[in-house]
Every structure is written in C-alpha cells, then in structure tokens.
Design brief:
Length: 978
C-alpha cells in the first residue's frame, strides 16, 4: 500500500474515532430523557402546565436539557440538577418516580412545596453524587430512608414539613459532609442520636415540631461547628446539657415547647457568638393554632448572669419559664439585647438602672413578675415597639421618658444577616404585631401623669408599617388631672388607644378628653374621679372611635347629642355616673353598637325603639335609672342580644319575648311592668277551656280554703323546725349565719386575704360584661384578678333556680376535695340571700370541650392530642387512685377495653409523678410490664379519639380525618418507641 492510499484510509477512519465517545454516551443521555419523562408520568396534577415543555424530540439527543427545571452538564450533557421551585399556586401533585434514580449524575434534587405524596423510593440510594436533597413542604410519608446516610457528597438535606414518621436514622446526624439537616414539622419519634464520628461539617440542625423524646444528647457537642440548633416543639425531657457550651460557633438555640426542667447551665455563656436564645415560647408559628402545642418547660432558679450579659445576645425569649432570681445590674455599653421576654415568671428585685445601657432594645416584656422599686429615668421606652411591665409592684412617679439619643428600631441588627436568625425572630410572632404597645398597668404608680412621647425613628417605622399606638395605664394610683396633649404625637399613628381605668384621676371630662386625637380608637377611663357635664363635648369628628368607657365616675348632665354621630362606636359604657336627661332618640344611628351600658344614672324618658337598629347588639344595661314607658317590642328581633337589664326603673306594659334571654331578674323593680311570665307555664294555646262561672267560683272558694290550711300548717312546721335546729346546732350555726350576712367567702385552699365578697365584686367590675368569659344553664362565669397575678374564675348562680342550687351543692361536694393541676380547683364559695358564687382557679387556656369544638373543623394536630392525652391520663389516674374518696369515671367501652384503660391509668399514675427521683424511666416501665408501652400509648390515643368523637358529636361535627386513619397513623407514631 502506497503512502497516499494509507493517508486516505486513515482520514476515512478519523470520523469514526471522533464520534466514538458520542456513541458511547448516547445511551446515558437517552436514559436521562426517559427518566424525566417517567417522572412526568407520575405527576397527576400540574395546574399551570409547568412541565408542558417536557416532550420527546428524536431529532436531538440533548433536547431534555432545555426542559423547565432541568440543568445539564455543559460538556457531558448529563442531567445534574432537577429544581422545580414554583409558587404554591403552581404546585405539582403525584408521587416521586423511582426513575429519578437513573439520573446517576444528579447533584441537586429540589422539588419543595408541592403536593407529592407516598414514600421516598428506595432506588434513589443510587444517586451517589447527590449534594442537595430538598423535598420540604410536601406530603411524603413513611420512615426517612436509612440510605440517605450513604450519600457521601450530600451537603444539604431538607425534608421538613412532611408526614415522615419513625426514628431519625441512627447515623444521619454527623454523617458525610452534611452541613444542614432540616427535619422539622414532621411526626418523627424516638431519641436524637448523634453519630459516633465527629460531625465537624454540620452547621444547621433543625428538628422542631416532632415527637422526639428523652434528654438532649450530650454528644451534640461533637458538632462543634454548629450555628443553629432548633429542638423546639418536641417532648424532650431532662435538662439542657452543659456540653452545649462547647459549641463556640452557636448563634441560635431554641429548646422551647418541650418538658425540660432543672437549672439553665451557665456554660451556655461560653457560646460567645450566641445571638438568639429561646427557652420557652407562648406564640405559635401557625397563627391559626394560637399556641396550641403548649409550653411545658419549667426550669429551676434564675438565668445565669453570665448568659444575660453576653455581648452578642440579641434575643432572649423565656416567658412563663418558672424562672426566679433577680436581673443583673451591671449591663455595659456592649449590651446588644434587642428583644427580651421574661414575662409571667417569678423574677424579684428592682428593674436595674443598668438596663438603660441596652440602647437598642425594641421589645421588653417583664409583665406578671414580682418586681418592685422605681423605673429607671433613662429607660428607652420611646424607642420600644413593645414595652410591658404590667402586673408587678413597681411604684413611685412615672418619669417623663425623653428620647435620649437616636433609636435603632430595627428588629434585627445590621451585622446580623443570617437567615435562620431572621426566621427565629419571625417564629416569635414579632412580625405579626401591628401595635406599638407601652403597658404600665396593674402596678403601684402614683402622682400625676407625664406627657408621653415616641421616638422619631419609631414614628418613621410606624408610617412605614401602619402601626397603631396603645398606651395602657390602668389599675394604678395616678391622681391629678390629665395633662393637655398627653400624647402629642397621637395623630402620627394609624390608630391611638388609651386605657386609664381604675385610677384616681380627676378633673373636668371636657378638659381631659383627647378631642384633638383624630385617630382615637379607644378611650377607657372608667372608675376614676372625672366630673362635669358630658353634654357639651364635641366628639363627632372622632370618626375612628370604637370604645368609650367612662363608667364609675361623677359625670353629670345629659348625654351628648354628638355621641350618636360617631357611627364607628361599638362599646358605649357610661354606667355608674350622675347623668340626667333622656336617651337621644337618634341613638339608632349607632348601627355598629355591640354593648351599651347606661346603668345606675338618673336618666329619664322612654327607651328609644331606634336602639334596636343596631342588629349586632349583644348587651344593653339600662337598670337603676328613672326610665318610663314601654320596653320596645322590637327587642324581640335582636337575635344577638344575650344580656338585657332594665330593672329598677318605672317601666310599664308588656315584656317582649326575647330570643336568648331567660329569667326575670332583668325586669324586677318596675312596679308598673307586667309580671314576668314563668318560662315553664303553659302557653295561651295550651290553656284549659274555662268552666262555668258558678262552678269556677265554688272551686275557687275550695282552693282558697285548702291554700289557707296548707299555709297555716306549713308555718307551724317551720316554727318547730327552727326551734329544733336552734337547740340541735346551737350558736355555732347562728355564728355561721351571721358570717354569711357579713358576706364571708368560705375557702378550701390557701388563698390571699383579698379573697372576700367585696373584692370579688370589684375585681369582676360588679360582674360586668367586660369580664364575662362564659354563660351556662345555671349561671354566668366571670374573670377576676384579686391581686396582681392571682386570677380566679367566679361562677355566679341565682338562688331562684332550683337546678342551680343542686348544681351548687354538687360542685361543693365534688370539686371541694379535688386538688390536681389538670383539674379545675374550687377555691371557695359564697352563699347570699339572692346569689351564690363558686370561685375556681382561672385556666387561661380554656377547657378541653371548648378546645375540641373550636378545632373540630380543622386538622387535628397530633402533638396537641399527645399532650392532651398525657394530661387526661394524669387527671383520671388522680381521680381513680389518689383522690379520697375515689371518684370513678365511667367509660362506655367494652369490658376488655376498659381493663386496658384502667391498666393504662395505673401506668399513668406512676409515670406522671413530678419528682424525677420517684418517676421511673421508660426502660424501667418496659421491663416491669409485659405489655409494650407503644401499645399502651396507642390505647391512650384511642381513648382520646373516642373522647373527641363524643364531644364533637354534641355539635354534629366530624373530625377531618377518619378515626380509622387516625388510629393507624397514631400507631405508626408509637411502634418505634423503645
């Protein structure tokens, strides 16, 4: 072969050598395209056709690289990223196809916030090059596959907000090169395990809102690069391990909504970069649930001073954490605190002067503690979006807070740019508040009120965010007159509200009323010493005014006619004054009116029929006046009216039929008014046919004789009974009766000396509508705060009702001997000539029945059910085994199930002891009982579901998910427990 022929042959073979790699890679390219098309076939919902471009094209081998959400390698054309991030309105639905595992060069698989369901397919473990796996915000179920620990290149794993159950894979935390793990908002159970190897790469660990149990592992200190640790919303118990102090890079720590106890370790102060510390939280991230998970952390002692003085700490959030001790007095200029919530604790001492060094503080809540002393003069109140020191014992004059320098009102400092820190702020609910609130109420302040200013920067923030301003000064001892222009900047806000109730402020109301505040929404100055005529007050221009409360003052003169022109008014409360004249006939112009209280004045004239034009009217109090004429029949058309009192007037005529009001107390004291009809009497249609007149007269005489005879006999028997009782019981009973005349409250438990009849009446505002928290068949219940921090619920019953007396006696016999934290406690009772009072401890969270009825139209949160189940078990165990004598609660179940339930209660009685030294561990329970705790836990859930069904059936409602599904779901939650 010649040289020329050899060259020709070589050139002819050259194209085949060039295309040989392409032919070799054509099969993987085809596999990638087919895998994507298989993924598309598993999608059952695509409302916006975002996968419309995913179509087969034979003319191009790499056509799939141009499909939406697909990214290919620039050289090999292999798929390296599948990212389907879309708006929620365009969310896809279906299952995750196992064909994704054929994308063997895939680095990123991100399909967040869709509606994919089912389990993660096992073949996905073949994606050995995967670096990012984001499946958050879907409906994936089952266990988290253990093969995720095999992804040696995986850096980010986000499976949050799904329905995963079972334990966290044992070697997941600390495996490979993982820098971020987010498993929050699932239904994971078991303990938190940290791998045996060092997890030096992990920087963010988020396990919030699951069912994780047992103590926080001390091995967490191996993750020494950790910046974010979120463990909130679980069932973790024990103490915060001191080893967390070894996490020198830690910025955010949230352990709220668990069952943690013991002291807060001072070693946390070694986390020199700590910015956010959340120990307890009463705000739920889901505003629709409103703190439904509850807070069960109860720490011991005080927060270590070293922790409070950390120069980097910006958020300290620990309301109702059972904290005691004092606040440090040595804050320096390096203080970075911006948000501090230590409300509802037991902190004592004074509010230290050093706190003024925290010049960037925008949120301070120290309410419901035991603080005394005076307020620091240079406290930056004008710069604070939220300032609350209510319900303490702080005294002295209220200083005039000036604006000492500029205000930094930003919630987050400029040097903080961490997304997780921002999220921590939002999780505390700070972003949802559209009010600037300064609350000084329920203290012991004296003297005249100063002018109140708001910082210029805060005003600018208000203009940007449409903030309203609420100034609360009630229940102090302020005196003197209100300064003119008390809040000079009141028109700079979206709205302005002021509460001056229960002080000793005096002066002419015409001078005190802030008529210049055009954006006034609420003016509350009840129970002060304001006087003068109210009639000449020009208020018609206050078009935003909704609440006007001037009860319990010394106002005189007629009602101002301009009042009826403020059509935004919903609450008009002017009772207990000296007002005269007539009720304006134009009061019907107040069509938004909900509550009208003009009681205990000297008003005359008719009740205007136009009043009933306010279709949403709920309460009308006109008692103890000098009104005359008829009660307007149009009151019968008000379907929302629940309270009407026209007693002790000069009314006449008939009593109209009221749809939601029973009883006669509301009409007594009107001698010209028709007798109140007995609600049990026969209606006119059912009355018997009249007899012959003569027969009727003869029968009337016989009846008269019989009645006279019976009356005489009754009188004689009563006299004999009194004599017998006198000699049988002696002066001891007479002493008791005399004490009742003195209105003495009989108490069962330790209670403050303020628990007497007069204080109860005063604390309830004379049983005012403002303190009404519920009504029932036997009476109404009111909230009362006898002393700061001591709340009670007062049930008021009428002696005129026989059933009410029976209910009263039954509750005294039963509740009088019950003492348990999950059961309502009867503190005391009072019996008078016309009323009876039952006084209970006040439960701010309501009761189980109301919770069920409010939640029955929504998805039932299993974390809520779990904690409710524990509380019910504790309460029932107490009733069955600890209360003397025992109170047996009947369960309508099969005998076998009842035995299991009783066995469960026995277990609960030993597993819910508060003392850690007495309460057995879970391992001890398992070893001592042949039946697995998981099955007992399942029985407990089954019992609670039956309870939910029974309660919801009262209102013909249904649980959103079927019971069978719920039981299976619950069982899957518990079978993995040790």
């Amino acid at each position: 072969m010649g040289l020329f022929q050899f060259l020709i042959l070589s050139l002819s073979l050259l194209p085949f050598s060039l295309f040989e790699p392409l032919l070799a890679t054509s099969t993987p390219l085809l596999d990638d395209a087919l895998s994507l098309l298989s993924f598309k076939e598993s999608v059952t919902a695509d409302p916006f056709n975002i996968l419309a471009s995913w179509k087969w094209n034979q003319s191009s081998s790499d056509h799939h690289c141009s499909w939406y959400g697909v990214t290919c390698h620039p050289l090999s054309q292999r798929v390296i990223s599948l990212n389907l991030t879309v708006d929620s309105s365009a969310a896809l639905g279906g299952t995750l196809s196992a064909s994704v595992a054929n994308l063997t060069q895939l680095r990123v698989l991100s399909i967040p916030h869709h509606n994919f369901s089912g389990e993660i397919p096992t073949p996905i473990s073949k994606l050995l090059l995967l670096e990012v796996l984001e499946l958050q915000g879907n409906n994936f179920t089952g266990y988290i596959p253990t093969h995720v620990t095999r992804f040696r290149s995986l850096r980010l794993l986000n499976l949050s907000s799904n329905l995963f159950t079972g334990p966290i894979p044992a070697r997941l935390i600390g495996s490979g090169k993982l820098t971020e793990i987010d498993l929050s908002n699932n239904q994971l159970s078991g303990r938190v395990e940290v791998g045996s190897k060092s997890c030096e790469f992990l920087t963010h660990l988020k396990l919030s809102n699951n069912f994780l149990t047992e103590p926080i592992p001390t091995e967490i200190s191996k993750c020494w690069n950790l910046k974010t640790l979120l463990l909130d919303g679980n069932i973790l118990e024990g103490k915060i391990p001191a080893q967390i102090g070894k996490l020198s890079e830690l910025r955010v720590l949230d352990v709220s909504r668990n069952s943690l106890t013991e002291k807060i370790p001072k070693e946390l102060a070694n986390c020199l970069k700590l910015c956010v510390l959340v120990l307890t939280n009463l705000v739920d991230e889901d505003s629709s649930l409103d703190s439904a998970r509850g807070e069960f952390n109860a720490f011991v002692g005080a927060i270590p001073f070293e922790l409070l003085l950390l120069p980097t700490l910006e958020i300290l959030w620990a309301p109702r954490a059972n904290l005691a001790g004092r606040l440090p007095s040595t804050w320096t200029e390096s203080c970075s605190l911006r948000v501090v919530n230590l409300g509802q604790n037991y902190i004592t001492g004074v509010l230290p002067e050093g706190i003024k060094m925290c010049k960037n503080m925008t949120f301070l809540d120290l309410s419901s503690n035991k603080l005394k002393g005076y307020l620091p003069l240079q406290l930056q109140v004008p710069c604070m979006l939220y300032f609350n020191i209510s319900r303490n014992q702080i005294s002295g004059f209220l200083p005039r807070f000036g604006n000492h320098g500029s205000c930094d009102t930003s919630i987050v400092s400029s040097n903080v740019n961490n997304q997780d820190i921002l999220k921590a702020y939002l999780g505390l609910g700070l972003d949802r508040n559209d009010w600037i609130i300064h609350d000084f109420s329920w203290n012991r302040f004296v003297g005249a009120l100063p002018l109140f200013f708001v910082g210029d920067e805060l005003l600018a923030t208000s203009n940007d965010h449409n903030f309203s301003y609420r100034l609360l000064l009630s229940n102090n001892k302020f005196n003197g007159s209100l300064p003119i222009g008390m809040v000079p900047q009141c028109n700079s806000f979206k709205g302005f509200s002021i509460n001056l109730n229960a002080n000793k402020i005096s002066g002419e109301i015409s001078h005190a009323f802030p008529v210049d505040c055009l954006r006034l929404t609420d003016f509350e100055a009840a129970y002060n010493q304001f006087g003068g005529s109210f009639s000449g007050l020009a208020i018609s221009h206050l078009v935003m005014l909704q609440r006007l409360d001037l009860r319990g003052n010394a106002l005189s003169g007629p009602l101002p006619h301009e009042l009826v022109n403020v059509k935004s008014l919903k609450w008009v409360l002017l009772g207990r004054n000296n007002m005269t004249g007539e009720i304006p006939s134009q009061i019907g112009h107040l069509t938004s009116l909900v509550v009208l209280d003009l009681s205990q004045n000297a008003l005359t004239g008719f009740i205007p029929p136009s009043l009933t034009k306010a279709s949403g009217l709920e309460t009308v109090l006109l008692d103890h006046n000098k009104l005359y004429g008829k009660i307007p029949s149009s009151f019968s058309t008000l379907v929302s009216l629940t309270q009407l009192d026209v007693s002790f007037n000069n009314l006449s005529g008939n009593i109209p039929h009221l749809q939601r009001i029973n009883g006669c107390d509301a009409f007594k004291g009107n001698k010209y008014l028709q007798s109140c009809p007995d609600p049990h009497s026969a209606s006119p249609a059912n009355l018997p046919v009249p007899l012959d007149v003569h027969k009727w007269r003869s029968r009337k005489k016989i009846k008269t004789l019989i009645i006279a005879a019976v009356t005489c006999a009754s009188v004689v028997l009563c006299l004999l009974a009194v004599i017998i009782l006198f000699f049988a019981f002696g002066r001891k009973k007479l002493t008791r009766l005399s004490s009742l005349r003195r209105k003495v409250v009989v108490t069962f438990a330790d209670s403050p000396s303020e628990l007497n009849y007069d204080n109860v009446v005063r604390a309830t505002g004379n049983f005012s509508i403002q303190n009404l928290i519920g009504t029932g068949g036997f009476g109404s219940t009111y909230k009362a705060e006898l002393v700061p921090g001591f709340l009670v619920a007062v049930k008021r019953l009428s002696i005129g009702r026989f059933q009410g007396v029976q209910q009263f006696e039954a509750e005294i016999r039963t509740l009088g001997r019950i003492r348990h934290k999950n059961l309502v406690t009867l503190i005391g009772y009072y019996v008078g000539e016309a009323e009876m009072l039952l006084i209970y401890n006040y439960l701010s969270g309501g009761n189980l029945e109301s919770f069920i009825h409010e939640r029955s139209t929504k998805n039932v949160n299993w974390g809520v059910i779990h904690k409710i189940a524990i509380d019910i078990a504790q309460a029932l165990a107490y009733l069955h085994y600890s209360c003397v004598p025992r109170i047996l609660w009947e369960v309508d179940t099969e005998p076998e199930e009842k035995e299991k339930l009783l066995e469960l209660l026995r277990l609960a009685s030993i597993c819910t002891v508060e003392s850690l030294s007495v309460r057995p561990s879970m391992k001890q329970v398992n070893s001592s009982k042949p039946l697995r705790f998981a099955f007992k836990f399942f029985c407990l859930f089954k019992f609670v579901i039956k309870l939910f069904e029974a309660e919801i059936s009262k209102t013909n409602r249904k649980i959103p998910n079927s019971t069978e599904f719920s039981l299976q779901h619950t069982k899957s939650l518990t079978v993995s427990r040790p």
